[in-house]
Amino acid sequence: MFTGIVSAVGRIIDVKPLEQGQEDAGVQLTVHAPDFSLENTKLGDSIAIQGACMTVVELQGDTFKVDVSRESLNRTTGLDAVGEVNLEHALRLGDSLDGHLVSGHVDGLGRVTHFEPVGESWDLRIDVPAELAKYLAYKGSITVNGVSLTVNDVSDHANGCEIRINLIPHTVQVTTLKHLKAGAHVNLEIDTIARYVERMVSLANKG
Asked: Do 8-89 and 108-206 share a fold?
């Protein structure tokens, strides 16, 4: 489990196919993370990269490697090329839950429709597909590229909904969200509590 509070921004410096010549193969990522504490990290530990939970397979100095399956690549964005990524260590018992409970399992992709400064803050709007739209609500939580955020508005439409999020300057400065532009795709994870509520309501309606 994670909290959606990004520990540091690292950089994917190498992307290598796990099986040469196989188009459907996954990749191995090498992540350089000088500002991300790795001293207590060991092989097999989980790290969220752009909101996707990955397992450490190799450690060397301030870099680590993870293997990403083709299935994960097909369902996420930002894990197949060199570039900056949000990083977070897995939650440990006794840690402060400053964001919300995040599993690190990306539910789908959203598309940025608007990202502009408004006063001291930033106005972020994301188009969300229909299969995820029902889980989103005013003042509810959502994870965007591994960042725990609060939904300020939900506008439903025929193919899903558009959500509006207010980003404070600190969040923009210390995450990869600063690189977003209209048209960019983002990893989305819905709130776990919303998932359970939907399940309970659907079963109650069947009764």
From this structure: yes
Burial class of residue 177, CB neighbours in 10 A (0-12, 13-18, 19+): buried
* Strands 46-49 vs 83-89: parallel, antiparallel or unpaired: antiparallel
Look at residue 197 and tell me whether its pLDDT is greater than 90: no
pLDDT, one tens digit per residue, over 113-170 is: 999 999 999 999 999 999 999 999 999 999 999 999 999 999 999 999 999 999 999 9
How far apart, in whole angstroms, are the C-alpha atoms of residue 62 and residue 171? 24
pTM (2 d.p.) = 0.93
Instruction: Provide the greatest CA pair distance for the chain.
Output: 57
Q: Provide the CATH topology of domain 108-206.
A: Elongation Factor Tu (Ef-tu); domain 3 (2.40.30)
Dist CA 141 CA 2 (whole Å): 14
Q: Which amino acid is at 128?
A: V
As a CATH number, domain 8-89 is: 2.40.30.20
Going from N- to C-terminal start, the domains of the chain cover 8-89, 108-206
Sheet holding 185-190, edge to edge: 147-150, 141-144, 185-190, 108-118, 121-129, 160-167, 153-157
Q: What's residue 21's pLDDT?
A: 64
87: helix, coil or strand? strand
